[in-house]
Design goal:
Length: 178
């Protein structure tokens, strides 16, 4: 399992593991507000993805967002050989009956290994859409009520209202209003 994850993340370096690369906590202070508007907005923000993964890990369903992210990166893959390698890794990690992080999608049994020989960028699209909808209509709403989300939102608000932030805003105001 560990070797599979290491290999998987080496093929998809854009997807950080849950310990991940340090992400900037000094993103726009509207981060959580933007995340709350849609799952799409959440998935476009690296910090949002990090927090959502943290939540899904606690719910034992982190594989859903990992699969979704892997499919997004797969669509950008150039070259038949690289595409075959990544397609096989997605299949063995998430879709095969022996997958280490199997996702629960309809029709995965119809996706057999022969399709991996002639990969195309949208070959996982139907399955990716199923996982997206599962996250959107199930996990995402619980995430917005979770301690992970609420605590992050609270820390953003505290940072926004801190004396340092207000002082910087006053300095900026003086500079631009002169």
């Amino acid at each position: 399992l560990l070797l599979t994850k290491i290999y998987f993340f080496s093929l998809f370096p854009e997807i950080n593991d849950s310990e991940g690369h340090p992400s900037s906590s000094h993103q726009t202070l509207k981060g959580t507000s933007k995340w709350a508007t849609s799952l799409e907005n959440l998935l476009e923000d690296p910090e949002g993805v990090k927090r959502f993964r943290e939540f899904l890990k606690k719910e034992f369903s982190e594989e859903n967002v990992l699969f979704w992210l892997a499919c997004e990166e797969f669509k950008k893959t150039q070259g038949k050989k690289q595409m075959q390698e990544k397609a096989k890794e997605i299949y063995t990690t998430f879709l095969s009956s022996k997958a280490s992080s199997q996702v629960n999608v309809e029709g995965q049994s119809r996706l057999n290994e022969t399709i991996l020989e002639t990969p195309h960028p949208l070959m996982f699209q139907k399955l990716q859409d199923q996982i997206f909808n599962l996250m959107k209509y199930d996990s995402y709403s619980r995430f917005l009520k979770s301690d992970i989300f609420l605590n992050h939102k609270k820390s953003e608000e505290q940072e926004e209202n801190s004396p340092e932030a207000q002082t910087a805003a006053k300095r900026a105001s003086r500079i631009y209003n002169t």
